[in-house]
Specification:
65% helix
Length: 868
């Protein structure tokens, strides 16, 4: 029999080499290659259980070889949800089954349109985008103001993207489809020069459009008045025909009818062609109605009906070539809309000509500027007012206007007639937009000392605001001011403005909160990309969050972006070369067909669960309940935060996460720097000379690195499809090699197998009960401490207490103490099994350096021979 001590010592002196030799064995290499080549093609439990070589390899790796026959049982294990404490695998006392289920991902990857982390990130981007609006606009205005002083030619303005964008936003030029020559021509036009670009290219069309709109407005108004007059005349005739209508009423009605007839006559004279065509059309319609009435008489024969129908058809054909009220109404409205649009379009070019001072050749006149100071100020104010929401800059402009204007107000009527003052006051005092100018007047003219006054009896939930508003103004009940009074004192103006500056964006903030709540609710029912794109609220938030709200992209384009493969640099979203679209694509998870996909995470869901559970186990071992509770909370933190990590740099920048990862892998964070971890992630597993392959704990670090989905650049990469993660594959291969090595060595010496098994399982031993629950582990302890076999029949609690007297289980987590224990075991196992160890064998094996000297071994040998 081979010496247990020597064989074990030779194997563990360089365990990595021992495992490599095992891996190189023909049968082992063949089965391992088969497993690695085919496990990625498995997509279901049936496929896995149906491939005996894959299934048997995995079962052996996890020490379940003797259960390979029990496929029905193992199916239940694999179907278990390990996040559920009551799932089948978790209810089994043997944690090998949990470990087996954890090694695969049959039920761990959730297809979801958007994960919680992605939702939080997108909403965060939306809030950031909103809060940055004013800052960005202020920056753009500052840039515009500075650069306009340097402009010496119109082309400098138009060829500077930021200046052009600013100008176009102010004046409403379409940035995508503008005509460079037209915009340049307008900017270099002098409106007082009849030969300027504007006056020769735009003025004629503008004059024609203005004329068309005026004539269309007039004709449409006349048409509407004529139709109303005719309708009223018809009603008057009906009233005059009633016997009960009094003579006095008939006189009044007849006078009204005459007035209406005169109105129609005036309109007929002004628009003879239109009105005569309408009357002719109406006459034919009347004939058709009369014919139908005759045709529907009971005594009409079929032949007569046919004749009537022929006449009706003839007149209906004629109507198709005639022009009635509907024709003119539609035609005039179209002309009205088209001319209005033309006027608005040309007005843009007219404004450009008015607001800039370029010469006809595009230059800035000598001694002048591209834009006068007052024009520049007006341009900047319009830019501020065009903000998509209330901003601080606009609020300051409204405040300045209010304080300047209110000082000159003398009546409530002036406030009623100024929409800016009216709106400012409503906002300042927190009144709803439904508060009309009449209601505002009633508040400002109420007598606060009269219990029955408007301000003391109206307003409901806003009554307190009514009273506060009334107290902030000094108008009399007739809406005027007493001699010497101002509408507001300086203190009252300050109070009003202070209130406004606090409340100016309340409506927008409330709208944001509503939009975000709607987004969260609606996302729960979105199941595919088309559902998402069809919902305007979802798209409003999503597009605003990434800065695409003003791009007017088609649904087709957005769909292509959202269904792009982010792992393929040639996919559609990357061809756009715009990070905003990439951000949008990363915010959701869609497959190429638009169905919900699996999120791209730094770790797969199964790996997050594994890492979190391992951490809790490591921290909870030999710890108090308080420590266990803190470990559980830390696991929750990790699970939430790792879902937000988008790169290796992000992970390594959070030392709290790094420490968590190291502890979960059984490593001491205090002994491992962040840079050291980075080198592990940057190593090439396939290069035998890489940093990770030179590390003594190479397997631990490989499994750690493989549990994350980072590419060679440290960016997120979508993991390969399959039922096993990279870490799971490495772990299974390592376990298979260990099991094989243990089995093969056990064929010659069961003691070596026991020692190797104990060494591998030691990290999971937390109490003496773990030793008692595993006969192999218990045998090692019994041999090491010479525990009598009779002790095995004692009460479990007695055995538990006895082992604890002999061994501090915590020592098994100390590599040095563990190795000493196993060397003691192997030596005593040789003694028990009458294995002779010569001095030459001991020297050749390098024994004695691990904790048991040659003298000790000699003494143990003598004990066996009865020498002492």
């Amino acid at each position: 029999m081979v010496s247990t001590y020597i064989d074990y010592n030779l194997l563990t002196r360089d365990m990595k080499t021992s495992l490599q030799r095992t891996a190189q064995q023909t049968l082992v290499a063949r089965e391992t290659e088969y497993y690695k080549a085919n496990i990625g093609n498995v997509t279901s439990i049936d496929e896995f259980l149906g491939d005996y070589r894959l299934y048997a390899y995995a079962m052996k790796a996890h020490g379940l070889e003797d259960m390979t026959y029990a496929k029905a049982f193992m199916r239940k294990v694999l179907e278990s949800d390990l996040s559920d404490d009551n799932s089948y695998a978790n209810m089994l006392t043997d944690d090998r089954y949990q470990n087996f289920a954890r090694a695969f991902s049959f039920s761990q990857s959730t297809e979801v349109v958007q994960s919680d982390a992605q939702e939080d990130a997108l909403i965060g981007l939306y809030n950031q985008s909103v809060s940055n609006i004013d800052t960005k606009m202020v920056q753009e205005t500052r840039y515009y103001d500075t650069m306009m002083d340097t402009i010496t030619n119109v082309d400098q303005l138009l060829q500077n993207d930021r200046l052009r964008s600013y100008t176009f936003q102010v004046f409403g030029v379409d940035a995508k489809y503008f005509n460079y020559a037209q915009v340049r021509g307008a900017l270099t036009s002098d409106l007082n020069d009849p030969n300027s670009y504007f006056n020769t290219n735009f003025a004629p069309a503008l004059d024609a459009a203005i004329a068309t709109k005026a004539s269309s407005d007039q004709a449409l108004s006349a048409l509407s008045s004529r139709v109303q007059s005719q309708t009223r005349i018809t009603n008057i005739d009906a009233l005059l025909a009633r016997p009960e209508t009094s003579d006095e009423d008939k006189v009044t009605l007849q006078a009204e009818k005459t007035t209406l007839q005169n109105n129609i006559a005036t309109i007929n004279a002004a628009f003879p062609e239109m009105t005569s065509n309408i009357d002719a059309y109406a006459g034919v319609e009347a004939e058709i109605r009369d014919l139908r009435t005759q045709m529907n008489q009971p005594d009409v024969t079929e032949a007569e009906k046919a004749a009537f129908q022929a006449e009706i058809d003839e007149r209906q054909t004629a109507l198709k070539t005639m022009k009635g009220v509907n024709f003119y109404a539609t035609d005039l409205q179209t002309k009205q809309q088209e001319s209005t649009a033309t006027i608005a379009r040309i007005a843009v070019f007219k404004d450009l000509a008015l607001m800039y001072d370029f010469a006809a050749d595009g230059s800035v006149p000598s001694g002048g500027t591209a834009q006068a100071a007052d024009s520049r100020k007006a341009t900047q104010e319009v830019y501020a007012y065009k903000a998509p929401r209330a901003t601080n800059s606009v609020a300051v402009l409204h405040k300045a206007y209010y304080e300047e204007t209110i000082a000159n107000v003398t009546t409530v009527a002036q406030i009623k007639g100024d929409s800016r003052l009216y709106s400012y006051i409503l906002t300042a005092f927190g009144l709803p937009s439904s508060t009309t100018v009449t209601m505002l007047e009633s508040i400002l003219t109420s007598d606060p000392n009269d219990p029955a006054s408007y301000v003391n009896t109206k307003g409901g939930e806003y009554n307190a605001a009514y009273k506060t508003l009334r107290a902030a103004f000094n108008f009399q009940t007739d809406g005027t001011l007493a001699a010497g009074d101002k509408p507001q004192t300086a203190a009252q103006i300050k109070t009003t403005s202070d209130n406004y500056m606090v409340r100016y964006n309340d409506a927008d903030e409330a709208a944001d909160a509503t939009l975000i709540n709607s987004f969260k609710s609606l996302m729960k029912i979105v199941s595919n990309v088309d559902d998402l794109i069809a919902d305007t609220k979802i798209m409003k938030l999503a597009l605003t969050a990434v800065g695409l709200e003003n791009e007017s992209d088609t649904a087709r384009k957005i769909r292509r972006v959202l269904t792009s493969d982010l792992t393929d640099p040639k996919s559609y979203v990357y061809t756009l070369k715009d990070d905003r679209y990439l951000q949008l694509a990363k915010a959701f998870n869609f497959n190429a067909d638009g169905s919900a996909g699996v999120p791209m995470l730094a770790q797969a869901e199964s790996e997050i669960l594994n890492t979190a559970k391992s951490y809790v186990i490591e921290k909870s071992r030999f710890a108090t309940e308080d420590v266990k509770t803190k470990a559980t909370e830390e696991a929750k933190y990790y699970s939430a935060e790792i879902s937000k990590v988008k790169s290796l740099d992000e992970l390594l920048s959070n030392r709290r996460l790094v420490d968590f990862v190291l502890v979960s892998a059984g490593l001491d964070p205090e002994k491992v720097s962040t840079d050291y971890v980075r080198k592990m992630f940057q190593s090439d597993f396939s290069d035998p000379d890489s940093f990770i392959n030179k590390e003594p704990d190479t397997t631990i670090y490989k499994e750690l690195v493989a549990s994350y989905n980072f590419d060679s650049k440290g960016e997120l990469a979508r993991p390969e499809l399959g039922i096993q993660t990279k870490r799971g594959l490495l772990e299974t291969e390592d376990l298979y090699l260990n099991q094989t090595l243990e089995q093969q060595r056990g064929e010659d010496n069961a003691g070596v197998r026991l020692a190797l098994y104990f060494r591998r399982q030691a990290s999971g031993i937390n109490t003496a009960y773990d030793l008692l629950a595993d006969s192999a582990l218990l045998q090692v302890i019994q041999t090491t401490f010479s525990i009598p076999e009779a002790m095995s029949s004692a009460d479990v609690d007695v055995q538990y207490a006895y082992i604890n007297r002999l061994l501090d289980v915590k020592d098994l987590q100390d590599p040095d103490k563990l190795e000493k224990l196993l060397l003691r075991f192997t030596a005593l196992y040789d003694v028990e099994n009458n294995v002779d160890i010569s001095a030459a064998q001991l020297i050749l094996s390098g024994g004695g350096g691990g904790g048991i000297s040659a003298d000790t071994l000699f003494s143990l040998s003598q004990l066996r021979l009865g020498g002492f």
